[in-house]
């Protein structure tokens, strides 16, 4: 009986120390020598560099920048060099009035003119003076660049959100596994004690089976926790963009403190919807401006060469040719195609305005829900902390009663199980609070991947 009392007291002290460490200090685990402990900010910083979605997003921004430069390049004068050579096997015919050669009026005679060798080379310059389509494209690409930056910001926030969630999930699994490991050790010791008491006919066989069953359940829970931790860590590595075979560990301490209220700023999804509406408005203006005339200045300078390779007069002579002009293009009628496109674009803008209102209303609802979840989680943490203290005191009292023969082993096991459940519930409530706070930061536009 003294052996049983000694081991039971040992179990009480172990649980009580575990509760104190959880509430006031946090659990610290020995890390493998080959694994590096990563803080949440280090994981986020690594994801900012290596996450493939962010790399794609940065490439898209660069592509939008190049498209904007391309649109501006249409305002730069264009220069082209042209050349061609023709050899006429049959010279072209022209009809000449016979009166030019002293013949009758009103009669014509065909005649072959020119030489078989023709060479043309010229340098042409075109300078756009006014083109409403080009200016519309420039404005459109500028808005598209803003849209690309906002999409990159949204991707950053999503990566921040994913990495933080996975980090919190890994932390809670590590703590759950620590509780299971501790309880496994205590239950194994308890099983040996009960087996010894059973051999001395001081405990029933059913008591041994109850403790053995609890030990098997804890072993199964430990295996599940290890498997879950591996899956979460793999997902975390994927979000960070690092190899799956890279050995890393995370800081196990869950930093909990009450967060202040966040100032509301423009939600990135709302900014995206507004910018998309701005882009549609620009496209509508482009369609309307397509009815306006375009004006350009152009000019050409070149040489025309003529050659003859038969006797008695072989020659190859070049003569300059040059001109300058202004060109005006004015669309008169294109079968109402532009009108139909304008009507379609107006409907798209109406849908875009409805989408802005929808996103705004949805964000308001989600912010209210996130605030409510955070308040509830905070209250649950406070309540669970009190339950944790009560469960530890109850377990200690039952152990003392067991010593005096006033409580059964079943009562002790039930109290031990209740204590473990409250321990895990406390951790879950802390992580729920952190996730609700993270969601609120995102919805109020206060989340950022940078420090």
Q: Number of domains in the coordinates?
A: 2
H-E order: HEHHEEEEHHEHEEHH
Number of strands: 8
- Quaternary organisation of the protein chains: single chain
Helix content: 55-70%
CATH architecture of the largest domain: Up-down Bundle
Strand content: 15-25%
End-to-end gap: 59 Å
Coarse structural class: alpha+beta
Q: Major beta sheet, specifics? A: 4 strands, antiparallel
Strand arrangement in the largest pleated sheet: 2-5-7-8
Taken from the alpha-carbon principal axes, the silhouette is: elongated
| Tally of helical runs | 8
Mean pLDDT: 84
CATH fold name of the largest domain: Outer membrane efflux proteins (OEP)
CATH class descriptor of the largest domain: Mainly Alpha
Low-pLDDT residue intervals, each spanning 5 or more residues: 1-34
What Rg is obtained from the alpha carbons, in whole angstroms? 42 Å
The CATH superfamily of the largest domain turns out to be Outer membrane efflux proteins (OEP)
List keywords for this structure.
four-stranded antiparallel β-sheet; 451 residues; alpha+beta; 16% strand; two-stranded parallel ribbon; disordered N terminus; Outer membrane efflux proteins (OEP); 63% helix
């Amino acid at each position: 009986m003294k052996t049983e009392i000694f081991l039971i007291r040992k179990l009480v002290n172990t649980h009580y120390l575990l509760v104190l460490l959880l509430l006031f200090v946090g659990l610290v685990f020995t890390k493998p020598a080959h694994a590096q402990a990563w803080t949440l900010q280090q994981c986020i910083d690594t994801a900012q560099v290596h996450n493939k979605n962010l790399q794609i997003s940065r490439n898209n921004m660069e592509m939008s920048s190049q498209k904007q430069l391309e649109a501006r390049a249409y305002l730069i004068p264009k220069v082209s060099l042209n050349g061609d050579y023709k050899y006429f096997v049959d010279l072209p015919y022209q009809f000449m009035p016979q009166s030019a050669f002293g013949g009758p009026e009103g009669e014509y005679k065909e005649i072959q003119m020119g030489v078989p060798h023709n060479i043309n080379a010229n340098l042409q310059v075109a300078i756009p003076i006014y083109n409403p389509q080009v200016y519309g494209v420039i404005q459109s690409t500028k808005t598209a660049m803003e849209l690309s930056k906002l999409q990159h910001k949204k991707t950053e926030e999503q990566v921040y959100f994913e990495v933080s969630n996975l980090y919190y999930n890994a932390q809670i699994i590590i703590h759950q596994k620590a509780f299971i490991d501790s309880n496994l050790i205590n239950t194994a010791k308890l099983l040996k004690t009960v087996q010894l008491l059973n051999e001395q006919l001081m405990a029933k066989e059913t008591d041994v089976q109850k403790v053995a069953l609890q030990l098997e359940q804890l072993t199964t829970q430990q295996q599940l926790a290890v498997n879950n931790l591996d899956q979460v860590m793999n997902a975390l590595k994927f979000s960070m963009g690092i190899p799956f075979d890279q050995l890393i560990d995370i800081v196990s301490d869950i930093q909990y403190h009450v967060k202040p209220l966040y100032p509301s700023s423009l939600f990135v999804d709302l900014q995206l919807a507004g910018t998309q509406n701005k882009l549609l408005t620009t496209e509508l203006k482009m369609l309307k401006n397509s009815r306006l005339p375009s004006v350009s200045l152009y000019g050409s300078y070149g040489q025309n060469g003529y050659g003859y390779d038969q006797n008695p007069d072989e020659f190859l002579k070049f003569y300059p040719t040059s001109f300058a002009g202004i060109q005006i293009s004015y669309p008169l009628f294109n079968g109402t195609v532009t009108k139909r496109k304008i009507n379609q674009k107006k409907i798209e803008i109406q849908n875009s305005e409805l989408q802005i209102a929808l996103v705004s209303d949805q964000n308001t609802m989600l912010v209210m829900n996130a605030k409510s979840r955070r308040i509830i989680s905070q209250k649950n943490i406070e309540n669970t902390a009190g339950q944790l203290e009560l469960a530890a005191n109850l377990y200690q009292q039952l152990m003392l009663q067991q010593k005096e023969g006033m409580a059964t082993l079943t009562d002790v096991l039930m109290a031990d199980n209740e204590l473990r459940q409250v321990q895990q519930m406390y951790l879950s409530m802390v992580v729920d609070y952190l996730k609700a706070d993270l969601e609120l930061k995102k919805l109020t536009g206060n989340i950022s991947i940078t420090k």
